[in-house]
Amino acid sequence: MKGSAGTRLLKLLLAVLILITLIFLSLPYLIDIKGLKAYYLSRIEEETGMGVEVEDLTISLLPAGLKARGVKLYPDRERKEPWMESDFLSISLYILPLLKKEIRVKEVRVKKEPSFIHSEVTNLLHTLVSSLRSPS
User: Fold this and answer.
1) What is the pTM of this model?
2) Which of 82, 84, 78, 81 has the alpha carbon at shortest distance from 114?
3) Could you tell me the CA-to-CA distances from 102 to 68, 81, 95, 132, 135 in Å, in that order?
4) What is the pLDDT of residues 40-93, one digit of tens each?
5) CA 85: distance to chain centroid?
6) For residues 70 and 87, is the Cβ–Cβ distance under 8 A?
7) Are the beta carbons of 93 and 104 closer than 8 angstroms?
8) Taking CA 77 as the corner, what is the angle to CA 73 and CA 82, rounded to the nearest 5 degrees?
9) What band does 29 get if pLDDT is binned at 50, 70 and 90?
10) Less Cβ around it within 10 Å: N or C end of the chain?
């Protein structure tokens, strides 16, 4: 009798583990990337006053973060001449604040050296990262 109950418990735990894994793996496909991209780009533009363009945006769960390709930062929203261009940008996020609907940036990485067109972009990048670290 004990072996039967233990076997059922093991099967139940395995089923729950498989269900959690499937949900976890399907989350990136259930999230509206275009809506997320538009929301956060407009939020960044509002908080920094800069114009931002991103060609492609993907979400990763492990590690939690965003990967952006074709990133351009402009000094204002008119987007005439970019201050910075980068082929690839990776933003790592803390997981626990995401559960509270907060964004906390752990790290920003650039795969290859971005081309800076103006020297003031360093201060603007600091402002950008600071605005992402503060809760909404």
Assistant:
1) 0.57
2) 84
3) 20, 32, 9, 9, 5
4) 788 878 878 888 888 988 877 777 888 889 888 888 878 788 877 888 888 888
5) 18
6) yes
7) yes
8) 30
9) confident
10) N
Structure-token pair, residue 59: 């979400």
The first and second tokens of residue 24, run together, are: 């976890």
Backbone angles phi, psi at 3, to 5 degrees: -60, -35
User: How far is residue 69's CA from residue 96's CA, in Å, rounded to a whole number?
Assistant: 26
The single residue listed with the structure tokens 């990967």 is 67
Q: What amino acid occupies position 78?
A: E
Q: Which residue type sits at 47?
A: E
**Nearest-angstrom CA–CA distance, 58 and 88:** 11
Beta-bridge mates of residue 105: 93
Could you tell me the two tokens for 76?
């204002």
Please state whether the peptide bond connecting residue 63 to the residue before it is cis, i.e. omega within 30 degrees of 0.
yes
